[in-house]
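WARN retry 2 of 3 for item q-0093 after timeout on previous attempt; input resubmitted unchanged.
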Amino acid sequence: MDHAAEAHRTDLMTITRFVLNEQSKHPEARGDFTILLSHIVLGCKFVCSSVSKAGLAKLIGLAGEVNVQGEQQKKLDVLSNEVFINALISSGRTSILVSEEDEQATFVEPSKRGRYCVVFDPLDGSSNIDCGVSIGTIFGIYMLKDDSEGTLNDVLQPGKKMVAAGYCMYGSSCTLVLSTGTGVNGFTLDPSLGEFILTHPDIKVPKKGKIYSVNEGNAKNWDEPTKKYVERCKFPEDESSPKSLRYIGSTLYEVFPMSFLMEQAGGQAFTGTGRALDIVPTTIHQRSPIFLGSCEDVEEIKSLYASYEAKTL
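OK item q-0093 returned
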């Protein structure tokens, strides 16, 4: 027996322990965020279990409805949405919930309200579950504005105002990536313990990437800077090696949470006109183009947009 390995295994950093450690750095904290996060984690575990047995439980297929983005809802979409709505309300720490699956925001009844607002896509990429592709939950957390009792304006804030963001990916393993504004950490669900364990501490993106991910099927709709950048990825002008292409339809994302994570990991998020996290949304389901990636790669995209704009003046 490898006693050293066993000894190491007895000192696991669970996500709950990790968040409690972070909480201890803030004497004024009351534990509300820790409670909220524990309910999000519970929701992720429930959805992970449902995804793993979707075929047996007859959860694969259409639910017969269309969400606000015009997408056909899957049975798992509906189930996952109900799971997270119930988990977040029962935490007693939320005031407003915005889900991609619901046209209107959910306002928690006063007796169960807290100081947090959560925006989320309960199951992104569910259309790919039939072919075994990874799918996931994406979420962002805001605090109510000072002296607010909970209005729609509390969720119509720029992404830079979020206090935390993360995603949970359900695939060959279940991985939860989280940032509370002080870096990014990844946790993997240990099925034998039923706990998320810290497996990827202090995640960072490289200064320049070797992979690009894009849906070539939308190429006819791209603007000139985007076309030029993708062309450079395939045929570098400096004779360096071309970037590898990896694209799966389930890599669609919600702009603010993924932009928040990217910046916390040392990358950038750019919309074609400015920093993604500076956008002030006017509606809860507002959409935006987005470039997420390593700093040098996004800087190259920015220079292409600047050149294009200079030519069109």
